Predict the 3D structure of the following.
Amino acid sequence: MVTEQGFLALAPQYTTTSELLSASARRRGMDVEVLPAHGGVDTAMARRGGHYYGGPAFAARVVDALEVALLEPSDDWLTTLPYEYTGRRIAMATLGEARGLSRPAFIKPPSAKSFPAAVYADGSCLPAGPELSPEVPVQISDVVTWAAEFRLYVLDGAVRTGSRYATFGRLDAERLEGHRHEGAVLDFADSLLAACGDGLPSAVVVDIGLLATPEDGAERWAVVEANMAWFSNCYAADPDRALDVVLRSAGPRTQLAEPDGRFCRSPRTLA
């Protein structure tokens, strides 16, 4: 029997965030279904109103059957931001071009996980392998040190909840509410979203940080990156509010708002 009840479908790999979101979903009366690691999604296919949380590789196998639209920020969004919001030089290139770098840089594949995001002494230190085509897109950034980093769950251009997740590169989760930097974080986020939020999907995770050594010596906030909410660790954020963002970021295709269409990724781009 087909039911119209909304439900949350989870990738089989357990995470603390999936546990928190599951509990939140059940509190609001949603069913939660952990999808099988192997085989189909037969029970989920007989339902309507599915939402997804989990990794992109597994998503590529199941989102068509679930009829879920996955929202993801564009690979080049960070490179389009003014310097006042990045605090560093950032550019898109190919892996082949990056191999020619003669200086240290932070280099990452913008959305895929084809090689580790890290600071590389120069381009010759980048990983090699038959699966790493010279045409693979990469993001190249100046090397900076983050004194503190915060994850913000954004829905319709407003921060719903957030969490500090690191200090000086070390995991250090603490809720945003009541944090000594709460006001500064929200002020920066409000300015960023007002100026550049139209380049993001309606449901997204934005990471921002406090630079440890800004050039002018003054406290400086900057964007770390933007990520898909349906595969982000919520750390110490309010899971009930985070779930609001996750459900929009990976929900039924029939409910996809027209402005979000350009951020809806094909399963082929996730594998």
User: Anything to note?
Assistant: Residues 114 and 206 are 22 Å apart (CA to CA). The chain has a mean pLDDT of 91. DSSP finds seven helices and 14 strands in the chain. The helical segments are 16-27, 42-45, 56-66, 83-86, 95-98, 182-196, 239-249.
